[in-house]
Design brief:
The complex is a heterodimer of chains A (about 325) and B (about 350). Chain A has about 325 residues and is of the alpha/beta class. Chain A is built from twelve helices and 14 strands. Helix content of chain A is about 35%, strand content about 20%. Chain A has a seven-stranded mixed sheet with strand order 3-2-4-5-7-6-12, with helices on both faces. In chain A, strands 9-11-10-13-14 form a five-stranded mixed sheet, with helices on both faces. With about 350 residues, chain B is of the alpha/beta class. The longest helix of chain B has 26 residues. The N and C termini of chain B lie far apart (about 45 Å). Classes of the chains: A alpha/beta (about 325), B alpha/beta (about 350).
Chain lengths: ~325, ~350
């Protein structure tokens, strides 16, 4: 199986789907000659032309609104927010319009659209270019929220997202763009709403998303040498979330830790913990369900401050050891 | 109309005898009577909506368009049945003019399962997607960016339909208005932007909300043709829209039309009309009412007489009363369906 980066995997999915389905088109800022701020759409203008790689003025609300309008009349737009933070500019079109159009109109309208949004900190981009807003988006009924952590999942989930008849927020993590992994050639999908156990373990269930999956897996390998076996679950889709896999896992391990980069207050870890404590898994808990999340602050610029704002490998290790030794 | 961009669209036949203008537009007596009849239907729908509310039969709010009927009829007789429409929450008249089923509209207004949106949308969100009516929007200006996307899709599919988006003077001060006009003009999209300037954005007088009037002139900033019309003259609206749709459909890009009109009812049910005088409202009703004015022209030309006009209005009321009967006899949505339609 060929190896490619997370970024290349997403590009491959867009490329293949645009070849397969002429209704699919890209719309966003600087996605043409520039190739997008991260180079993800590099080369696509030459291949597909300016009509299907539609470069826009800097007008985020109308980018999302136009994607919605096109989707309502049968197109399959993939809009790009240059940074996830810019999604906040578009909340009317996303939250009031795209998310609700089907419901408001009694099931008659469909809005098959994808909004790509690179999120996350770690690049020194400071407070307005580093946020993790998945919890905010998953609060709105009508939206689906997807965030892959591997190149394989990124391609498979992008293909599922474009083919999904609903608005899908496709969250990419900037630190993952250069990570490599095996990605099959050709068509395959990773279903929306199905989590994956990325590592089996008997002692503790950790639920983490995007870059936190990568960090947690590293720590898990290290601690395995000491006899602590961590099970790592990547929800892959934040909404709809596959809580059943998490419940199963906690019934086995009796311990739960949820890790996300997003700010703690109102973060989705609370949602997972509520799902566990409200389920049959509650009876299996041998320790308090815990969360490790980003600090409740905007992301700072300074390297050390930025690093300290979100969970790092050493934080994850410390938390796992605390849970394993009963010292929380 | 001028070929060059940023020219004001001047109706060609503003001068002379009113009915002679209609003739030059190839409108038959039957068509003119139908204009009148549809305006009466809209008026009766809105009067009935107000009455039903007063009777306590309406659960939510409503935004009535009585007084603005000429914009609806003049526009939708100029566009094609298969053209797309997006509008905002004062939209009953637009849908009636586009040919919506009055029964299903009234059922939606009363929140019934037989309504266009199965009782999920109510007055503010009536839509008939199958008839290319992409729905009314409760967010001021919210539908405007979507018209850009519809126009984009039509252009990409090389279809000759256009997208008509109607909004109020208040929406013209939303940021998306400017973004959308820019993008639609930039890409020469088949979008007809119609600003119904009814003088108030809720209570805010347009002159206190807008730095420079007319609103339509803003089109010049985007190199787009524009027109400023008497929105209470159905023939002037119709004629302008014929010109505008011809331009838009020909692939030469969007047009912005501002139609000046007036709403008789308050903004919504909470409105006590504290921001305008009774005299002002009465003056519009007495001297500038779109239905009375048009009726006067048809009477003057002998196209119908008072008795026929009264009969048409009575028939309009009859249609609305039947719709109320239909709606009241219709079932409520089944509670077991509460969570349906969130996802496809």
């Amino acid at each position: 199986m060929p190896e490619m980066t997370y970024l290349e995997a997403i590009r491959q999915a867009l490329w293949d789907e645009m070849k397969r389905d002429e209704r699919v088109f890209l719309i966003g800022e600087d996605i043409g000659r520039y190739g997008g701020a991260f180079g993800l759409t590099h080369g696509m203008l030459d291949e597909f032309g300016p009509e299907r790689v539609r470069e826009t003025p800097i007008s985020e609300p109308t980018i999302v609104g136009a994607a919605l309008g096109a989707a309502l009349v049968g197109m399959r737009p993939v809009a790009e927010m240059m940074f996830m933070d810019f999604t906040l500019l578009t909340l009317d079109q996303l939250g009031n319009q795209a998310a609700k159009v089907r419901f408001m109109f009694g099931g008659k309208a469909t809005a098959p659209m994808v909004i790509r949004m690179p999120g996350g900190s770690g690049t020194g981009a400071a407070a307005q270019h580093s946020q993790s807003l998945e919890s905010l988006l998953m609060h709105i009924p009508g939206l689906k929220v997807v965030n892959p952590s591997t190149p394989y999942d990124a391609k498979g989930l992008m293909l599922s997202s474009i083919r999904d008849p609903n608005p899908v927020c496709f969250i990419e993590h900037k630190l993952l763009y250069k990570t490599k992994g095996e990605v099959p050639e050709g068509d395959y999908t990773v279903p929306i709403g199905v989590s994956e156990v990325k590592r089996q373990g008997r002692d503790l269930t950790i639920v983490a998303n995007n870059v936190m999956v990568v960090r947690t897996l590293k720590v898990a390998e290290k601690l395995a040498g000491e006899g602590i076996e961590v099970e790592v679950i990547d929800p892959r889709t934040m909404r709809p979330m596959d809580t059943e896999t998490i419940i199963e896992s906690v019934c086995k391990t009796g311990r739960l830790l949820v890790i996300h980069e997003a700010c703690q207050t109102g973060g989705w870890a609370g949602e997972v913990i509520a799902a566990i404590t409200g389920s049959r898994a509650f009876d299996y808990l041998d320790a308090p369900a815990r969360r490790l999340a980003g600090k409740d602050i905007p992301i700072p610029y300074n390297r050390a401050l930025e690093r300290a704002a979100v969970p790092q490998e050493e934080d994850i290790e410390r938390e796992i050891r605390a849970i394993a030794s009963g010292q929380y | 109309m001028q070929e060059a961009k940023s020219k004001k669209i001047e109706p060609r036949t503003t001068k002379g005898d009113y009915i002679a203008r209609a003739r030059r537009l190839n409108l038959s007596d039957e068509q003119l009577v139908e204009f009148f009849s549809t305006m009466c239907t809209i008026r009766q729908f809105e009067l009935m909506a107000d009455k039903l509310y007063a009777m306590g039969k309406v659960h939510g709010t409503m935004h009535l368009s009585a007084g603005q009927e000429a914009v609806a009829v003049g526009t939708f007789r100029a566009v094609r049945v298969d053209d797309y429409v997006l509008n905002h929450h004062r939209g009953h008249g637009h849908f009636i003019a586009k040919g919506a089923d009055i029964n299903r509209m009234m059922a939606e207004f009363l929140g019934k399962d037989t309504g266009y949106c199965r009782g999920r949308g109510g007055s503010m969100h009536i839509a008939d997607v199958e008839a290319n009516n992409l729905g009314a929007n409760g967010i001021v200006g919210g539908g405007i960016p979507q018209s850009v996307g519809v126009g984009l899709a039509l252009q990409m599919k090389k279809l000759d339909q256009i997208c008509v988006v109607l909004f109020g003077d208040g929406a013209a001060n939303e940021g998306v208005f400017h973004e959308s006009l820019n993008m639609a003009a930039l890409w020469s999209l088949p979008v007809l932007f119609i600003c119904e300037n009814n003088k108030y954005g809720m209570s805010m007088d347009v002159e206190h909300a807008t730095a420079k009037l007319p609103i339509a002139q803003r089109a010049e900033a985007y190199g787009m043709p524009w027109a400023y019309v008497d929105g209470n003259d159905v023939l002037e609206v119709y004629e302008t829209m014929i010109e505008a749709t011809r331009h838009v459909r020909s692939g030469r890009g969007p047009v912005l039309v501002e139609a000046v009109t007036y709403r008789y009812f308050g903004h919504s049910k909470s409105d006590r009309n504290l921001y305008r005088t009774k005299d002002e409202i009465e003056d519009w009703k007495k001297h500038r009412d779109p239905i009375l004015r048009f009726k006067g022209h048809l009477l003057h030309a002998g196209i119908f007489d008072e008795a026929k006009a009264a009969e048409i209005d009575a028939e309009a009321l009859n249609v609305i009363e039947k719709a109320v009967e239909f709606a009241e006899a219709s079932p409520e949505p089944d509670l077991s369906t509460l969570t349906e339609f969130v996802y496809a």
